[in-house]
UniProtKB/TrEMBL annotation:
Subcellular location per the Swiss-Prot or TrEMBL entry: Cell membrane
Domain of life of the source: Bacteria
Keywords assigned by UniProt, alphabetized: Cell membrane, Membrane, Transmembrane, Transmembrane helix
Domain annotation RDD: ranges: 128-263
Biased composition annotated in UniProt, kind: Pro residues: 15-24, 52-63, 72-89
Keyword Transmembrane: yes
Its membrane topology: Multi-pass membrane protein
Name the record gives this protein: RDD family protein
Compositional bias segments (type: Basic and acidic residues): 1-10
Ranges that cross the membrane: 143-162, 174-193
Length: 279
């Protein structure tokens, strides 16, 4: 009875208090951060209590960008310029401009620089060939064709006369007819060599050489070449309609036929054939 009374006096009266948890041996031995003693609500991560900063993390300075800002590309890497063509030199850093046009009497530009084209040539009206000189030159150039035409007319003349008299047995003169056809083939070969090859390359056929005229391009003042000389003669068909195209040089400012205007050619006098302003 006495022991029971003494035991009651030693024990405190009041609610039961749970015992304090024992410290973690690993934390005490390693010196790591102490774990919370009370209950923890939420997901516990490897960095500790949710919401608590990591032991080594520091708050960012005011105005500093966070470490998770998106990456932006830097400037493009420098690449060396392409090598210059042979004969070129790099332009100076200050005050460089394109080279001026060529000066009369100076050598041609260096390789690689564009050539400066001359202006479109112009001739005075008195420099163009006169209409009579052009007609005479064409008669000389087409002499074989004209002779062949005369032979063919003479060959068919008896046939036409016999038909007019009612003679159905009339025949042409076969000798003249064959000679005219053969001369036509000669005239075609003569035109090929005289007017298209020689006349296209040099500007002068036999007829133009005898009359002192030359066929030149209205674009650059040079001979027109074989192809353009052939096309020009082919386009004379347009001049043959009522002979208007052949008569056009009589009042035209540049004394051109229709074929000349299409191919852009002029016929000038060789005594003064240099365009105005050309040296």
């Amino acid at each position: 009875m006495g022991e029971q009374t003494g035991r009651d006096q030693q024990e405190p009266s009041g609610p039961d208090v749970p015992p304090a948890p024992a410290p973690d041996p690993a934390s005490a031995a390693g010196g790591g951060p102490s774990q919370p003693s009370g209950p923890v609500y939420g997901r516990v991560t490897r960095f500790g209590v949710p919401g608590a900063p990591a032991p080594s993390a520091r708050p960012p300075a005011p105005g500093a960008s966070p470490s998770w800002a998106p990456w932006t590309p830097g400037p493009a890497p420098w690449t060396p310029p392409a090598p210059l063509p042979p004969g070129w030199t790099g332009p100076p850093d200050v005050g460089w401009s394109a080279p001026p046009g060529p000066v009369p009497g100076w050598p041609a530009p260096l390789p690689g620089w564009p050539a400066h084209a001359r202006p479109r040539p112009r001739w005075r009206r008195d420099q163009y060939a006169r209409w009579g000189s052009r007609v005479l030159g064409d008669l000389v150039d087409h002499a074989p064709a004209y002779v062949a035409l005369v032979l063919q007319l003479l060959a068919y003349l008896p046939l036409y006369a016999g038909l007019l008299r009612g003679d159905v047995d009339a025949e042409p003169r076969w000798g003249l007819l064959v000679g005219g056809l053969a001369l036509n083939l000669v005239a075609i070969g003569w035109n090929l060599w005289n007017r298209w090859i020689c006349g296209g390359r040099t500007g002068q056929s036999l007829g133009r050489r005898l009359t002192g005229t030359r066929l030149l391009s209205q674009v650059d003042g040079r001979p027109v070449g074989t192809l353009n000389a052939f096309l020009r003669d082919l386009l004379h068909v347009l001049d043959g309609f009522a002979w208007i195209g052949y008569l056009w040089p009589l009042w035209d400012e540049e004394r051109q036929t229709f074929a000349d205007k299409i191919i852009e050619t002029v016929v000038v006098r060789t005594v003064d054939e240099r365009p105005v302003g050309w040296s």
